[in-house]
Each structure stands twice: as structure tokens, then as C-alpha cells.
Amino acid sequence: MLKHNLHPSDHLGFGVGLRSVHFSHILRHWPAVDWFEIISENFIDSAGRPRYVLEQIAERYPVVMHGVSLSIGSTDPLDFDYLAKLKRLAREVNARWISDHLCWTGVAGRTTHDLLPLPLTEESLAHVIARVRTVQDYLERPLVLENPSSYVTFAADTMPEWEFLSRVAAQTNCRLLLDVNNVYVSSRNHDFDPHEYLRSIPHDRMQQFHLAGHTDLGTHCIDTHDGRVVDRVWDLYREAVGLTGGAATLLEWDARIPTFDEVHEEALKAKRFVGGTEPREVFSTGYSAPSTRPPNHIPHPSHLVSVEAE
Amino acid sequence: MTAIAAELADLQRWLLAAITEPIGPETAAVEQRLLPSREQSAAERLAVYRSAYVARLLEVLREQFPCTRFAVGDELFDQFAAGYLKAHPPNSYTLARLADKLVDHLEGTRPADWGAFVVELARLEQTIDRVFDAAGPENLPSYTVPEIAGDSLTLTLAPGLELHAFSYPVSTFYTAWKSRLQPSWPQPQPQFVALLRRDYIVRRHELNRPQYELLSGISRGMPLGEAVAAGAAAVENADSEKLAAEFSDWFATWATSGFFAAPL
Questions:
Q1: Which residue of B has its CA nearest to A81?
Q2: What is the pLDDT of residues B156-177, one digit of tens each?
Q3: Is the residue at A131 inside a domain?
Q4: Looking at residue A222, which CATH number applies to its domain?
Q5: Cβ separation of A111 and B136 shorter than 8 Å?
Q6: Residue A217 maps to a domain
Q7: Do A111 and B57 lie within an 8 Å CB cutoff?
Q8: So what's the ipTM on this one?
Q9: What's the 3-state SS for A250-282?
């Protein structure tokens, strides 16, 4: 039984992030996937194959738009041209919801194309709340905000991230996309208890879950989206499903992307945790061992569509 | 912006510089603003973002210019790319716009002994990228030029079709690279190319100079007669009867390849 106030049709099931390397496979096989999540920026300006593929997919599957450039926490003005493109695409592909991250990506007219953390202060909170309200008014729908992975914390912080997110949700009526892998990665990087995070967020605001792989470098973890979900993250997912009653769940795989079937198979593992009665199983390699690879892994997001040319 | 948000803005400007500037901030300045974790110092944690910034953007440029990268080698490409990113840091919400000024930057910074080859090769790759995702002809009806077309007929090139003149055979080089033939840098030789997307795949059509001049005339809105004259003017020692037959063949080929949209 759902513990949140979502409409049942919002519980889309177990989806896969749409990536250009899988376009041909999807158009050829129309796999039995519950839903797709797109990276909004890959499609809002497209008049070519990415857009064509998306239109075909949107006719057959529920589609959710997930962005990386809203920069809700930036002190630069909101980009209303960008928002207009989001709104138009959402209408054209009947996007079930629009999500982005609790972060900022740049300032002073520049961007890093990274999801940068905010200082968790009352000042930041007021700033984000005001901007979420503006964005929601413009989009005419609730925004769905995701907790990012982060690698620094600020001396100015006065509250934990879960409190910040909870207060944003309470005061804006926005919804939450809980990236369970990000909770784990940030808990490792910032020495907090991920279970406390899960217990403390508002379970009735949960719209969606993200799952992904990461790279464990021993001293810290990086959200690389380049492998399978590790067992500790599955454990947290099971706990989150138990606390919230479950929500639409999406697997992200953005680097060293395997075949579509392999990605889909990884996403479907999440089904075993719905209902909360399944015993813990070892799916991947047991607990993730620290990587011995050099620390040059690129955190999500990196979102360029590959060109097809003869 | 409120005074409170101005404090946030100050911190964001500092962190942006700390991440993107080639030389990072002093350790004391980092420790004043960022906390250590149990395993990492504040500076080590900041370094995650610093290395990711460069790595992510370099990866995008490598992916957008794979043939140019092959031509100059990985190390030199990365040096130019890093210089470009320093001179033109990203300012768009989309990575697809990251390289908008790369060709101009290459032109302004390339070694003199490179000639224009690398710049033109990068321009070709950038054009392929643009044509791939621009408005194209896929949803438009095909158009065949009537066999007896009057000189006053104005043709319209298919949406997204681009014509380019190069001083090096960069399209030939690109084809050889795509075929994994490890081509060497070519000698200067004019090359004319039409780039057009069909069925969502970018296709290159190599042209001769008269073809290029003719199609350029059409793209500038010349009536057919004037455009044909512009093409004919580029033919040396033209035999008018032979030329007319050739032009007819060209138009048939181009129409089959989807070069034309219905006339205005």
C-alpha cells in the first residue's frame, strides 16, 4: 500500500534512462519497459534523430523528463528561454513529470556542466524556495527535485541535506526524486548515516527513485553511473521502498553503457524489493570494493548525444 | 537579489573560480569555506570537482571532434581543447553548444605550418554535428526538378543542407578515417562538399567547383537560369552541349539524393 499521496498512475513501475546508444535497439524491438526517463537537455533543441526517436517512444511508453541544467540554486536569474523549452517539450511528449537536481551548475553567466552543492543554510533555503515556486508557477506543475551526489560540504552549513530537502518540499509543495545511490555516495563522502537520511525525508512527497552504479575510490565515492548497483545501495533502496510504500523507479547508466537488455535487467532487479519481504540477495559483486583505477572518473552528468554520420 | 542571496552569490562565484581556474585557490581559503571529511582534506574534496570539470568537457570535445583528434594526436588535441576551454568557458545549458567557437579558436591559435587543414577538418566535423540535429528534410515531400524547367524557376535547397568549400580534401580524409585507413595529412587541394541529412543520418556529397557554384547560386535564391550560368562560368573550356547533358544528370542525381525542397 502506498504511503504517499501520489495518483496511482504516477507509480510507473521500473524504467530505464533513455540513451542514444540504445536508440536503434529500442526502435527495432520495442522492449517491454515500463517507462523511460530522458535527459531533457538532449531533446529540447533537437530537430533531428533524437527528437524523432523520442516521439516514437512517447507514443508507446510513459516518458519522464529529467534535467541537469535548471540550476535551481544558482544566484543567476532563472533562464526562462530554457524553461519555455522544457514546458513545450513536456507538452509535446506528454511528460508525466519534470525533474532536476537540488544544486546549482554555474553563476555569472558561466556553467560548469556539473551539479554543484549548495551551502545548506537558511539563506540558501529561502533562495531555493523562492525559485522553486517561480519555476512551478511557470511550468504549471510541481517540480520534482533530486538529491545530488556531492563531494564537498561547506563551513557555513547549518542543517543536513535531508532537512533542507524536507523544508523545500514542505514550503513549495514540490515532489522528491530520491536518488538512493546519491544518498549512499554522499553518506560516504560526508560521513553521515544514510539510514537517518532515508528516515528523515518526507515519505509522502516521494515521486520517484533513482538507482545507479558508482565508483568507490576508498577515500570517497564518485557518482559515475558506469556500472551495476552495489548491494549497499540495494539495501538502502529496499529500506526506502519500505518507508515510502514505493514509487516509480529508474535505473541510470551513463558511462561504459552495456546492451539495452543488460541495463533493463539491472532495472528489473528493483522489482524484488517492492513489498519489502524479499531477503537480501547479492546481485553484483558483493560489497563494492574500492577501485584501484586512477581518480579521473567523471561524475554524472555528461550528456552528449552521439552523432550518426556516413 | 536580496542581500542574503548576495552572500550566496559570493560563495558561488568563489567556488566556480576554485573549480574552473587552472590554478586552484590557496589551501587556507579552501579550508575557510569547505570542510574536510574523515578521509579527505577540504582541498582534496575540492579537487574532485576541479578534475571532473576539465575531464568532462575534454571528453565532450573529444567525442565531437574524433577525426580532428586523430589528425593532431591525443596529446596535442587535449592541449588545444584545454586552451579553448580556458579562452571560452562554457556558458550554455547544453553541452551541444560547448564547441561553438572552437573552429575560430583553432584558426587563431594554430601553428603556421599546419596550414588550414586542421581548422577545416574541425569545421567539417562541427557541420556534421549541426546537420545531425538541425531541422531536416525527413517530414517533407520529395521534390523532383521538372525536366523542362524555365530559367525563372527558383529552387529551394532542402532544410539543413549546407555547402562548404575547403582548401584541403577534408571530406576525403574524413572518409578514410571512418574506414580506419589511418590517412596521412593531405596536400592542399580544393574540395567542395554538400552535407545533408537523410533518414536522420548525415551524408556528405563531394562536389566539383561548377556543381558547388551552381548549388551556391540556388542557395542564395538565384533563379535557375542564373544559377546554371554561375555553374557554367566555373567550367573551363566548356562544351555547351556536353555541359547541358551534365547539368541534367546532376539535377537528377541531386533530386534523388533529396537536395531540393518544393519551390517557394
A1: B93
A2: 999 999 999 999 999 999 999 9
A3: yes
A4: 3.20.20.150
A5: no
A6: yes
A7: no
A8: 0.91
A9: EEECCCCCCCHHHHHHHHHHHHHHCCCCCCCCC
